[in-house]
């Protein structure tokens, strides 16, 4: 990066929506920008910062190695015992808007560490990279004359699906008219008109009250504000989502595709003289069980199905039982993440209540963990498939590792993601809207035995494209350079 020696490097403030999938990817972006010499302020909520300190202390300490990197803490406005998961994640939007937004503005005005420091090379914040679902940052940025770039943690396919919802309503294609209407193909999502069904739209569309549903309105409103930002950063790559990206560029011309971010972090550190980048950066808000890696070491090549439904999803006891029976009955080995806060009214944790056939099948072939180092798990040679909720980070991590997916999308962007995985990229199967032990048993076997060769062909090829895009000269690698250059010109 060419520095303005008079003024010092640009100072970028990065502000994620406070959940694992967002903090994780935006910390990776922060790391990449800091590695390029930019000064970074990373804004964490008090709740999440405490968790990072507790569960990822080594990872956190690494950031102090970057000159000009600082964490700042801001309240999320929720009580300490709020679950911040499942349906109640939505309550965070209200508190962020009512409590955090004014504090954010005040902080930008008054915190001396966000201003230029006379006699030092510290500049005032010259650019804000805000999570695209915290669009209040645009208002604050406009008021203070600081350019705001949006970062979305979802894929281009879901971003575009959200963006098109008002057009679908206007054309009378929404609302969905009950269960029997779920397989209808929608015509008004340009670029997806041959394969996107009602059931593949973001889950919030599953409402009759399409114009008044608060969750849907919130996500659509946030997405529709992005053209008002200076630019949009997406954690994706051109070779994966090129056609959809062309559609988005009609509304948001300035897009930087710099994904998969975790691969970029890895390849940027190759040959770097100042390597402080971490190829397996965890940024974990949960306590990691590393013993699962020892268990994996003892399993045969590509024999294990890894099962995880991300950091927010909650499930019922009944759902858990169907999956558990399906996995045990498949007779395949499995590594399953069941977070401590995942099952509502959990009885599965009490050994006495676990049916003996499940306990036995799990002892023989299974490993259940609270939280694992997922990138490392997916890269392990024993993994033959990923049974996933199709969160975007998980999808990208699976793509880079070349692991085929069995998708059970739960909410929000996961519905379109799983349609693209199965129908467009042919990287696996979509089990959407089904929760049945017989189906789980069959699909697990299809994924890692019966249709394995078919899926391996496309996953190997897509993994190659992902790695190429993140390597020197690749599309994401070059786009990151372009982003750094453009940020350097802001506020000069
Ligand atoms: C949510 C949304 O669901 C997702 O679609 C959106 O893009 C980001 O916010 P989440 O549900 O948690 O995120 O899923 P995902 O995006 O897949 O992120 C989960 C992250 O947690 C991944 O980076 C994954 O590697 C990590 N993880 C998960 C672990 O490190 N260990 C685990 O045991 C489970």
Automatic annotation (TrEMBL):
Residue ranges occupied by any Glycosyltransferase N-terminal domain in the UniProt entry: 12-103
Reaction equations catalysed: 7-deoxyloganetate + UDP-alpha-D-glucose = 7-deoxyloganate + UDP + H(+)
GO MF annotations, alphabetized: 7-deoxyloganetic acid glucosyltransferase activity; quercetin 3-O-glucosyltransferase activity; quercetin 7-O-glucosyltransferase activity
A Pfam family that the UniProt record links to this protein: Glyco_transf_N
InterPro entries linked to this entry: Glyco_transf_N (IPR058980), UDP_glucos_trans (IPR002213), UDP_glycos_trans_CS (IPR035595)
Swiss-Prot/TrEMBL keywords: Glycosyltransferase, Transferase
Gene3D superfamilies for this protein: Glycogen Phosphorylase B (3.40.50.2000)
A single GO cellular-component term on record: cytoplasm
EC id: 2.4.1.-
Source species, domain of life: Eukaryota
Family: Belongs to the UDP-glycosyltransferase family.
PANTHER family: GLUCOSYL/GLUCURONOSYL TRANSFERASES, GLYCOSYLTRANSFERASE
Protein name: Glycosyltransferase
Native organism: Juglans regia
